[in-house]
Amino acid sequence: DSFMVYLTLSEGYKSGGLGLRGKRLNTFEPEIVANTEVGFKFDALDSRWRLNGAIYRMDYDQIQVQQAETGPGGPTDVILFLDNAGSAVVQGAELETTLAFDQLLIRASMGYTDAYYNEYTVFLADGSQFDRSDEPFAVVPEHSRSLSIQYRFQTPVGMITPRLSYSYRSEIFVGLDAKANLYDGATLGGQELYNARVSWIPSDRWRVSAYVNNIKDSVYFGGGVALGDNLGTTTKAQIPPRHFGLEFAYQWE
User: Fold this and answer.
1) Nearest CA-CA partner of 50 in 92, 102, 3, 103
2) Among 145, 140, 142, 147, CA closest to 223
3) Which residues, 6+ apart, have CB-to-CB distance to 238 below 8 Å?
4) Segment (H or E) for 171
5) DSSP at 125
6) Contact 29/42 with Cβ under 8 angstroms?
7) For 80-95, what is each residue's pLDDT tens digit?
8) In sequence order, which residues have a C-beta less than 8 Å from that of residue 150 and are 6 or more positions away?
9) Smallest Cα–Cα separation from 162: which of 217, 192, 200?
């Protein structure tokens, strides 16, 4: 009664359409994905321990991707448009667990993703073709994991709940144009973050929380856009440095 295995087979569809590619129209085909997933769900210790796992595979046909190219105005003239990349595969595994005791709550998860293109040929503005099938899959980290520990205890002035959390993701590729894969700056390094929060709940209506995010004051880039053939550089968005604050919440009837 506390163990379940499941199999999912499904197919998804995203319609094609028309979009601007500079001063001309660009057509893109419908995207179709076939999804297969096998997983399990397990409860033990009077449902205080939960363990879920899954292995999945998604096969894309005519996957739609955001692309960029140089416009007639030169390297600084960047044209963004939506087009098809042929076929691609996104597959991987996920595992998550929860331990829930009277006052202690622990949650952990980890994931592995293997994403790649089988076929990715683009037609450039000058009519030539460029094979991008060896290019890394954009904005998909290969590894990810997280852990959070929360403890709650009752005091004469209300419930106090401290919480520590940790998260990690491996490097990601943020290239958009045909030559971004040749530029080292198109890959953003992995990031590892530590956060802390403590909440005070004096009544059913009030909640006061204090938090510190990015405790180690680490410098990471959470996202960006690489244009190797255009600007020859990457526009990166740095995550906030160590910061802290207070939150007040009140719930009306």
Assistant:
1) 3
2) 140
3) 219, 220, 221, 222
4) none
5) T
6) no
7) 888 898 899 999 999 9
8) 104, 105, 106, 161, 162, 163, 164
9) 200
Q: 167-207: per-residue pLDDT in tens?
A: 999 999 988 887 788 777 889 999 999 999 999 999 989 99
Q: Which positions ≥6 away from 127 have C-beta within 8 Å? A: none
Cα(55)–Cα(187) distance, rounded to whole angstroms? 26
Considering just the CA atoms, what is the radius of gyration of the chain in Å? 23
Per-state percent for the chain, helix, strand, coil, to nearest 5: 0, 70, 30
**Which residues have C-beta within 8 Å of that of residue 81, sequence separation ≥ 6?**
19, 20, 21, 22, 26, 66, 67, 68, 69
